[in-house]
Amino acid sequence: MKKEKKEKQEVKVIDSTGQAKQQNPNIIELSREEPERPFYEITEEERRKLFKVYKSTSIRNNIIMFVVLGAFIGAFIAITRGQIGQIIGWVLIGVTIVSLVTYYLLTRNSYPKASRTYFYTFWKYSNEYLFSQDGFEDCKIDQNDKYEMSELIADRVYKETSDIASRNLVKGTYFGKSFVFGEVALYKPGAKKNSRDVIFVGRHLSVQNKLEFEGRYIVNIKREQKPLDLPNDIEDLSALLDEETFIIYGPEGRDYKKDLGEDLIKSLKEFKLEEGLANVNIAFWQGRTACYLSYEDSIVAMPFQNEINLKAYESEKKDIEKLFAILAR
């Protein structure tokens, strides 16, 4: 049996010196070395290139659309003007179709290729910036990785989840403990047929812990008094501690201070939500912790038309530094 020869897809990536290099686009290795240029300069350069390609492609497509429309109108008018007109009209239609096919073949990869380069560059250098603190090792991203719905349902923070979207999953270790940190959106069925409503949008952290207890706890830390994405899978839990911006849900009658530890609770109470972070829900199980960080668009939306919001990423880096120190040490 002949083995099929698969073409290895490559993507152009810009390194910190501004030089292009060829990489397998699926695996992104995060370096611990400080880049020669700030991450936002590198990624902003690629964002501008992508947006330029997008604008020029849109303009060309609009021009082509009007030219083709005019050609077809002219061709049909010519066809009605006798035998010579019919010949001219059909020739014009044929030339237009051939030109359209040629244009498509020549330009079909320009925007997708620029998009792949931007995604790769953005995820690589933004995550190297976010995970540059001491303790992070062997961090990498497989761009094919997605969260399984069963993984997030098992956290038991949000019920009625019917669909998920995820990307940019960073896997690595923090002082020897394995973790996964990625972007995720959770949806539930909407009121209208075939519609869906957002339950949660933000970052998800899964990390090992050394806690030993039966059952589960959910800790909610909020900046706003009534955020929209509070945990709703709590029917079997009670509010063991209920403060204005800090709630602990757990099995009724349990000693949450003993199960979670007073030092952990104290650290979580002292955790201040940086700008852009509206709400944090943390599910504690024996052996594992799942943390949901509800971020605003300035962080969860990948920059495209507008410049990168550096202040938002500085805030997220502080969140990561503080949360990992609390949850993964």
- Element order, helices and strands? EEEHHHEHEEEEEEHHEEHH
End-to-end separation: 53 Å
The number of domains is 2
Low-confidence stretches: 1-10
* General form: elongated
Number of strands: 12
Mean pLDDT: 83
Give the radius of gyration.
26 Å
Major β-sheet, in short? 10 strands, antiparallel
Strand line-up of the largest beta sheet: 3-4-5-6-7-12-11-8-10-9
Supply the helix-strand structural class: alpha+beta
Strand percentage: 25-35%
| Number of discrete helical segments | 8
What percent of residues adopt helix (DSSP H or I)? 25-40%
The gist of it:
By secondary structure, this protein is of the alpha+beta class. The chain has eight helices and twelve strands.
Compile the SSE list and pairings.
Elements: E1 11-14, E2 20-23, E3 27-29, H1 39-79, H2 82-107, H3 110-130, E4 136-142, H4 149-153, E5 163-174, E6 177-189, E7 196-208, E8 216-222, E9 238-242, E10 246-250, H5 256-260, H6 262-270, E11 277-285, E12 288-295, H7 297-300, H8 310-327
Antiparallel strand pairs: 1-2, 3-4, 4-5, 5-6, 6-7, 7-12, 8-10, 8-11, 9-10, 11-12
Helix pairs in contact: 1-2, 1-3
